[in-house]
Design goal:
The structure is a homotetramer of 457-residue chains. By secondary structure, chain A is α/β, with parallel strands linked by helices. Chain A folds into three domains: 233 residues, 4-Layer Sandwich (Metallo-beta-lactamase, Chain A), CATH 3.60.15; 99 residues, Oxidized Rhodanese, domain 1, CATH 3.40.250; 94 residues, Rhodanese-like domain (Oxidized Rhodanese, domain 1). Helix content of chain A is 29%, strand content 23%. Chain A is built from 15 helices and 24 strands. In chain A, the strands form five sheets. A six-stranded mixed sheet of chain A has the order 1-2-3-4-5-6, with helices on one face. The first copy, chain A, has a six-stranded mixed sheet with strand order 7-8-9-10-13-14. In chain A, strands 15-19-18-16-17 form a five-stranded parallel sheet. In chain A, helix 3 packs across helix 5. The N and C termini of chain A lie far apart (56 Å). The relative contact order of chain A is 0.09. Chains A and D meet through helix 8, helix 11 and helix 15 of A and helix 8, helix 11 and helix 15 of D.
Chain lengths: 457, 457, 457, 457
């Protein structure tokens, strides 16, 4: 009997949805908001979509369960412990049939209270679990963050997670393939491996946290981790608890010639410019945020408001659809339009542009050696700084620049660095928007390391 | 560091090729002949193709290693024991670096002498094997056939296979993901599971053959299996040992209006008609072979000659590219063209057609009950007959009908059945070509079972 | 300044929509219902959609003007003389600017009262008309039908058409390119040329009707033409006057496994089977209509009810999207689903099928020569019969078979012929549905002519 | 009978190829080098490719006739007067049948001696010409350049052109649709209209040159026109006379990581950087040529050598295929590879970059008002300067900068302007490569005009 498993990765937030079909029955695990993908898969598999299983109330993207339910008779299932406004609440141990497969819900709290894993058994071959959808409990190379409820509850969460992993997941056996809710690059786990392919056995043997077999050690380790809580998580949590608006009700955005674009801008819309740092630096519309394309899903939610309309400037119009999807996935439904002809049309129309300087690491080195009057900000997250940072650099995470704007000196040029320049340009655009003279370092720390310039660890 | 694993399945023969990239380095395992796929994957991954690893001299399709080597600097590796005319011969235990991964060749003879598996280790996470490309040694739910060298050597092969699996693969550990060379539907293993996702642990626990831990039992079990040896295997083996012709040197096929098509036919070309049995039965060109589209890769090699040009009749022109690919994958490089306008153009031109009757299972039941003078052939393979067959049905495997044509009585209508009618129609077309009056049963045994008509087991 | 003209042809009904952009402004003429095409074109052209121009209330398909207006600020314009429930009513001679172009509405009644042409002038090059959208007034090689209001008004319409063509369109000058609302294959003009590229000059010189320069001759000629009035025209007229439902509100259809399909069938849904006549003949679900894929847009409206749900059986699942579009374009919004696995799944499930015999023209000839008891129906339209028909064949147009079912004798096998067999199979399926024993001739009259069998003219 | 006409436009050089099919026969007029398009069209049309008609030895791109002949039995036809090394030479008046169409070659010298037009008649509708492929004799709004053989022969050419247009093309009649070899943007005619749709009548009435009915006036007008002769024309002429290499023999280019890219560079390869001026200005590899994507087909041939390997830097990897095609179309077959990871990978690797400053028109105005020491070059072609230029700007056409490098003062910043900045950036990159300090004006003259700054006419 046919068995199909497809992993659908949403770039940027690195969230993983799964489609699983056996015979003529299919389910989806953690569907993303643009959910036609899953309907198409069911169609190709000639299967009925019977279930949507959610591993938890995802906080980093809008869940697509209702999108699927809008066009099929699918049953939606969530874990216990939240007052869900749609779908069904599961019981620990509840079982479902899907063709020759048996799907068993395993309550695995820790990341959040309702977190649930789904073990899959192939009744045609044996009794041992074949695979398990682990949600945010167990990743390839990492474990779920336990700080979502604030510091007071972190220890309780860490303890829950320990129990979930050691007493519920590991017992499934080394042979069992794990299918987590996130891959590398997600904010839900800083150390997630790029491999995206693992088993309970591999994690038991190679996952750093799982080597800490003592519960106390494990909890202490989890408490020592550092994670950011992006402002947009609140919006996602609210959406995913109550059911987000359906995409068919989201208005379409429009092409806007420079004049009309300018008018929207003057009425308070916010410009998101997804061009490369080099392009953006040379010429951009005053007040624009520069968020590189692939960074949009993960970084938009840190700085873009939900209560103002958005306007788009892109390098390449073939990317527009992607930009649109990326923003919808994190709930930005109020996109007014995009600049027809791009920035060239804008400045060719004699509309004003601004610049942000770019400098090489060599020039930065000289400035530092010469003790020129600059203020250097490293916008990476603390774990990244472990690789080494430039002496005297001030660390402010890119997502927090806007909140910590008061900590930054006026009247001195600000130089921003990050991993390879994308977030530094984003930071520079935020600073520029707030009236600072900012400058972005080409290649950032990647080039600095390559140049073998001195670092502090 | 980026890690990408892609499985590329060639439908019909169910052969699996793999693309694996770590950082900027990539390899391909068992590439199929139409190999642009792999170049495209390397391109997307921004990686250099360093290695092609072959698990064995595949006997059921043309290997694409030389296609890749023709446009890149890739190194090709085969297992030891054959006099390869291209590429490099490996040593057991030879290791390769691929980004953070280590690939280790493990000589695993049994299916064939040169059969080699490739274990993959992630040096960034631990020392246990992460995955292993098992070739035709170990499948999901099955093990490789050991009859390729003929009955005298089967026992030796089976013993080798036992050693390879129990002493080389199982020791990799339960946690290790297996990536075999074939999925369900392949002629290389009758019981391969549809799941296409497994681990050493799952196979150790659930694979029937692996429960036979005693070497003798294992060997006896393997010797008791039944497999067919398709005539085209010889051609593939020769191709894959010496290096097949490059696709860029294969002449393109052409659209042929009915008149030109007829001319080619009269000059000795063979017609392959890939339409559905119902369409084919109603009207087809005299002497056509009816092989359904998805059956082409696995069944063409049983009956189509390599030394005559082929002509195509298709239901739908969007399928032509697929037909072409399917035939190239098994080495039919001499395709002259296809019938423009399909069978409708043919008969609208007042060119003659023939028919093959179709009957329902109910009608067949009545004929049998009334003891009408028909000769019933079940063209399935012996393992399939275990599900039950119709009393008095003669079993001749579809691939052998042409060879056993003398065993079939003339002067009596022949009725063919198979699983659901596709192979029965193929068989009926072969019989018709040889002058028999043949008839195909709609739905074949699938419908017969549904109807609850009596069967013999 | 950029100027883009795109012709969008809807297959089957051969209706032509146009997209025209100059600079950053664009218009659409006679948009079809699935109107995303036009938004995409405007997007690519970096242009604002300013206008939708309708040449008349199209009666053979659902107009897409409201679809466009739903997502843009486009202005819709119709010709004078109808009580339009949406959009704006034009005045004869009204002018519009579109970049460097001037678009001038020219009231050209005749086909219908509100029929309007749109002449386009390029103000950057000269004062002579560059092109004219002629709607159903003037086609390549034909003129619009004048029988839409019934026989009493046909003469008035023909006179109007004469005036529109000779006094309004021809004066635009020989140089002017014509862009009509239909191409060859449309029911709106039997003699439309396949060329799809013409000028006022070419039509003035080569169009048969335009050689009849005397008004009386012209009117008599038009009155002598024969056209069918398809039952679905009424529905289209109503839709297009009042504004059809938006596609986003049309429910999606679903994959249905044989059991669920059968249930829907038993509850009164109608089966549309778009397979080839040969496939359909061999096995189909009782009561199915057989309409070949390309014939769907033009022939569905003759026989399918609007008040019952539809079910689909297709040869090839890649065609489903097309089937869906074709039916939506003529207003069939109530499609329940399609048969998963096609007819093979149906009969493999031991659900009953029916057959319709197919015979060759040779067999038909023999039957006729032997004076066998058959009733031969030629289902082509009268103009087609001019090429010659088989002696004693009764002519009933395929679209009227259902209405004239009483004229057909029971108790005698019915043989149907048409051009090349597609409509004959459709007719045979209608007859079968009504209890007749019907038979379809492979290749129909095309094969008969090729065979040089006797015909009557 | 089916009739299909497709126009295939090659962007950048604005060359037009045509595919024409009637019934089951097809021809191609002036095929471009990447000729699979035409095979695909023939395939879709279910037609045999009978003829390739060339209107002249195209000098601005590689002709694809041999590509088509390599895979079909097509006959290639050229006009008389050249010693063609492949295909057949036509006679004036030679006729060809194509389904119901008649194609008549009309020798129309003027642009070049062998120039030939092809009039098309529809024998099913009348005797007047339906359309004519006019090659480079007559464009929409323009006529072919007559300076290809140098000044001594221009008058003779102009006279020939007059005769060809007035005595051979205009007599075809106002009704006749014209299908020229180039659209707007081609170097083969400076005033070609964007409309791409015209008739003999429209040109007779609205084409400026055709109003000059006196032969002398016409000749004088043609002699007064200004055209550039790009260096690559010679290569194209040689290719198209002798038959260019087949694409299947052109080596594929490869992804190159920064290190390998640098190595190629050091061995003498030339870098073509197709990014936007803003991106390029901020950071680029020393010695790169900046040619914007759409400008590649028309501008590459001015500055890129044929005897050195090329390396590519692109903004977006989805554009690579386009870059490749554009370069192949003008004969650059020696492309080594592209920079994996783009310029970001380069500078992140701590490889050195250079910058070119960008300034706004406001800043330029201030510099000019302040009489700062800059040297302003307007790189547009003379006809463009008629719209107005900045006082004291020196005019050197972008294609000639490299040749006139001696005329440019060292030791003073060079500021380049063009229409909207693309060619100015190309010019700035050439200057930079030659050691000048160059600067590019954002929005160039387009912004200058918008700003209403003073111009000289």
């Amino acid at each position: 009997m046919k068995l199909i498993l497809k992993k659908i990765k949403s770039e940027g937030i690195a969230s993983l949805s799964y489609f699983l079909a056996s015979g003529n029955e299919a389910c989806v695990v953690d569907p993303r908001r643009d959910a036609k993908t899953f309907l198409k898969l069911a169609w190709d598999a000639e299967a009925d979509l019977k279930y949507v299983f959610e591993t938890h109330r995802n906080e980093d993207y809008v869940i697509g369960s209702r999108e699927i339910a809008d066009v099929t008779n699918v049953e939606i299932y969530h874990g216990p412990g939240l007052d869900w406004k749609y779908g069904n609440t599961l019981k620990d141990g509840q079982e479902f049939n899907l063709g020759v497969l048996k799907v068993k819900a395993i309550h695995t709290p820790g990341h959040t209270d309702e977190s649930t894993s789904y073990a899959v058994y192939d009744t045609s071959t044996g009794i041992e679990a074949v695979m398990v959808f682990t949600g945010d409990a167990l990743f390839v190379g990492d474990t779920g963050r336990i700080d979502m409820y604030g510091p007071q509850l972190s220890e309780k969460n860490a303890t829950n997670l320990y129990n979930s992993i050691f007493n519920k997941l590991i017992p499934l056996g080394d042979q069992c393939i794990i299918l987590p809710a996130h891959g590398a690059g997600s904010v839900c786990g800083a150390e997630i491996n790029e491999r995206e392919l693992s088993t309970i056995g591999l994690e038991r043997m190679q996952n750093h946290a799982l080597q800490l077999k003592d519960k106390n050690n494990f909890v202490q380790f989890k408490l020592s981790e550092h994670h950011y809580y992006a402002p947009y998580f609140k919006k996602m949590e609210e959406y995913n608890l109550n059911g987000p608006p359906l995409l068919k009700d989201v208005p379409r955005f429009k092409p806007l010639l420079p004049g009309k674009f300018k008018k929207q801008l003057e009425e308070g819309a916010i410009v998101v410019d997804t061009r490369n740092p080099t392009s953006f630096g040379s010429a951009h519309i005053k007040g624009s945020y520069n968020i590189w394309l692939k960074g949009l899903p993960s970084h938009a939610g840190w700085i873009l408001p939900y209560d103002k309309p958005l306007l788009l400037v892109v390098e390449n119009f073939t990317n527009l659809k992607k930009v649109y999807k990326y923003l919808l996935r994190v709930g930005y439904d109020n996109i007014k339009g995009y600049l027809v002809g791009g920035i060239v049309a804008w400045y060719s129309n004699h509309f004003p542009t601004e610049t942000i300087g770019t400098i090489t690491v060599d020039a930065l080195k000289r400035k530092l050696d010469n003790k020129e009057d600059i203020f250097l900000i490293d916008v990476r997250s603390p774990p990244e700084l472990k690789e080494g940072y430039i002496e005297h650099a001030k660390n402010i995470y890119v997502g927090e620049i806007q909140d910590k704007i008061e900590e930054i000196p006026k009247n001195v040029p600000i130089v921003t660095v990050c991993g390879n320049g994308a977030r530094a340009s984003m930071a520079a655009s935020i600073l520029k928007k707030h009236g600072f003279e900012s400058m972005n370092v080409l290649g950032s720390m990647k080039a600095w390391y390559k140049a073998n310039y001195p670092i502090v660890k």
